[in-house]
Amino acid sequence: MLIRGRSALFLILPAGILFAVFMLYPLVRGIQLSFTNAIGPAGGTFVGFANYIAMVTDPTVIRALENTLVYTVLVVVVQNAVALLLAYWLFQLKRVRNIVRASLLLPAMMAFVAVGYLWSFIYSPLGGPLDLVMDALGLHGLEKIWLGDPQTALLSIAFVYIWMYTGYATTIYLANYLAISPSLLEAAQLDGARGWTRFRTIDWRLLAPSLTINITLSVIGSLRVFDLPFIMTQGGPDNSTQTLSLDIYNNSFTNFQFAYGTAVAVALLILTVIVGVTQATILRRREVDL
Amino acid sequence: MRKSIAIVALVATVSLGLAGCSSAATTSGSGHVTLNVVGFEGESTEVADIPNINKAFEKKYPNITLNYKYVSNSEYDQYNNTRLASGSAADVLMTNPTRVQQWVKQGYLQDLSGQSWVKNILPNVAPFGEVNGKTYAFTQQNIPIGLYANLDILKKAGIEEVPQTWPEFIAALQKLKSAGQPGLLLANQTGWTSEQISMALAASLVDNSWGPNYDKGGSTWNPSFSPVFDRLKQLLTTGLVNGKLMNGIEPFNVGNSQFIDGKWAFTVMGAWELQAIQNGAKFDFSLNPMPGGDAGTKPKSFTFVGSGWGVNAASQNKKAAEEYVAFMASPTSDAGYLAAENSFSTLSNVPSPTMPKATSFVEAFNDNRTTPSPIEFIQFPSYEQQFWNVGTSLFNDPSQSDSSLLNKLDQTIPKTK
After folding, report:
1. H or E stretch covering B267
2. Average pLDDT score over residue span B334-358
3. Among the partner residues B10, B249, B250, nearest to A10 by beta-carbon distance
4. Structure confidence at residue B313 as a pLDDT band (50, 70, 90)
């Protein structure tokens, strides 16, 4: 049944109202607020682009942007590489697959708060299990103050995020693997394609849809990273784990610079949209080309 | 068919609209009032005797039912700011000096200058509840932060008394190190502890007028805090404190557990932990003012002006809300709160509690050798976070010059008047 005209309009009205109230209005209001000097979610006077100009020269925002980009590249590359390897391995080992598959999603099901506290304990320089293991293995050079040293703090947090979501990404790759026609792989095998050659020429191309999904999810998730640095380091030491989302929170709710925080949020939104749309376009075009 | 679809859609839309228009009444026709109170103390690790005070309040005011909501400090601003903006915040709000300033600027707090307890507020803490000479909050907490000492470890190293001066303190740390005993714990993950030890040292090394003059443009970080950073560098560069290690230790859970387990001779922490340490420690200990001064001086320290109470300017139950704040400021309630928090009194008609494990700190307080934290006079809201960045940076690399670190503070903590 095709519904047109007024009935169609009435049907989309509830969803349309919800969308307008909970998505469009906050977005418009946020953009409007970013052009004021409001110190709370209401009030303030119009200040034009002052917040955006201040943001460009704010060393904390610049540091947060650098950290966010480094974190994103690190997480996206490592998480997807490891997830692909795991998916490839699980695809080969049918007996192990079903047992492992159930546990892959477990870390992603845990709350960020719990994971943050758990890994803070693991990284602890005072009797933390990680340094104890390094010590037991004689790897004294790898005994670090993981969250206390600016050189390792961001990497340590990125590792936790990768630990949480690699299983999730693996599941998506594995689902794609299982959708590949067995006859196609058999034909490739008969033609002598094995190991790396088969992965490069057959698997990699056929995994294009899952690669698009995984890259998109991990890029957006990484650009918005907030919970782990908030729980584990609060942006320290010396701003080495300060991220854009954390800076937005600090400006809005700690510094009482709500308009400025909103301006940074608008900038992050623009960045996320540009990066998201660009990479989705490239990956979809790649899917079509393949 | 089309007509019925349209009717269903219309009903759904109207229902949705009505659902968004509900509101909660707080005063019944019989005059019974439900008073909403929100605080970042009263549960969890900081009960602060508030449940008992609330029970006593309800007993005294049977027409008022309290709806006390505990929100952790880390979520407190997030919780309240949107509610204040939309006019749905609690009637009574727990405050602190920064929140008083910011909320008054937005018109969220009621002027309480006419309340009877205002005349009893001690002059040195009164500014923390005031804006432009008007009182907007009852500042209740003025809590010591200083040097905890494990007296058993000191004895093992042959140190009979807690150091009183900086040279004695350095000598004690060196003696502990030579004796193979643990030394000073400055658990500095996030940077909070670097602020506390700096302010504690500043009590001896920086003029008391520094804080009140900061926003007036009369004082700067550089060079006033250079002697403070020099002392910290002395600890960090001579092997007495490992700054990088300290930056990796969380202060409130891990750090306190370490001290309670008897693994360190000294730590810097607030008096709110006195009870927990007393309950958990299997050794003798004391809380002391910071031995930051030169030889021959008496130790000084600072007090942290913390929580208080204000009334929401948009409250429909202002009379009941003011009664709640006044009840909090009454001698019985305040004494209960202060004893639970190990806080000094902020009221002239309420004595400070006795703190047997902090006698030297109480002595310093009575001897005017304590001062409210100089950094708390600054009105720029994120002064603490800015200091923490510099503090963790100093702990990470103590070879940086004082001027580069302190200039950074002058730049990132602007004057707001």
Report:
1. strand B266-270
2. 94
3. B10
4. very high
Among A123, A87, A129, A80, CA closest to A104: A87
Distances (CA, A) of A38 to A33, A253, A260, A282, B251: 7, 12, 8, 39, 34
Q: Are the Cβ atoms of B392 and A238 closer than 8 angstroms?
A: yes
Q: B195-213 burial string, b = 16+ CB within 10 Å, else e?
A: bbbbbbbbbbbbeeebbeb
Residue of B115, B124, B118 lying closest to B142 (CA atoms): B124
pLDDT in tens, B55-73: 999 999 999 999 999 999 8
Q: Identify which of B339, B194, B306, B171 has the alpha carbon closest to the alpha carbon of residue B255.
A: B194
SS (H, E, C) B314-362: CCCCHHHHHHHHHHHCCHHHHHHHHHHHCCECCECCCCCCCCHHHHHHH
Cα(B7)–Cα(B130) distance, rounded to whole angstroms?
57
Chain A interface mutation, best of B2, B11, B76, B195, highest count of A Cβ atoms under 10 Å:
B2
What ipTM was estimated for this complex? Answer: 0.78
pLDDT tens sequence across A252-280:
887 888 899 999 999 999 999 999 899 88
Query: Is residue A107 within 8 angstroms of chain B, CB to CB?
Result: no
CA-only gyration radius of chain B, Å: 24
* B197 within 8 A of B289, measured Cβ to Cβ: no
Q: Residue A148 and residue B249: Cβ atoms within 8 Å?
A: yes
CA distance A30 to A285: 33
| CB atoms B6 and A6 under 8 Å | yes
Q: Does the distance separating the beta carbons of A14 and B244 come in below 8 Å?
A: no
Query: Nearest Cβ partner of A148 from B82, B248, B412?
Result: B248
Alpha helices in B182-314 (DSSP H): 192-205, 210-214, 221-224, 226-237, 243-247, 256-260, 274-280
Candidates B200, B199, B175; CA nearest to B265 is: B175
Nearest to B81 among A11, A126, A253 (CB): A253
Distance CA B352, CA B370 (A): 14
Task: State whether B248 and A254 contact (CB < 8 Å).
Answer: no
Q: How far is A27 from chain B (nearest CA, A)?
A: 16
**Alpha-helix runs per DSSP H in A105-207:** 106-109, 112-123, 129-136, 150-179, 182-190, 195-198, 204-206
- Residues 255-284 in B contacting A (C-alpha not used; CB under 8 Å): 258
The pair phi, psi for residue A46, each rounded to 5°, is: -65, 130
| Interface check B389 vs A, CB under 8 A | yes
- Integer Cα distance of B200 and B222 in angstroms: 18
Separation in Å, CA of A11 to nearest CA in chain B: 5
Does any CB of chain B come closer than 8 Å to the CB of residue A214? no
Q: Please list every residue in chain B whose beta carbon sits closer than 8 Å to the beta carbon of residue A13.
A: 9-10, 12-13
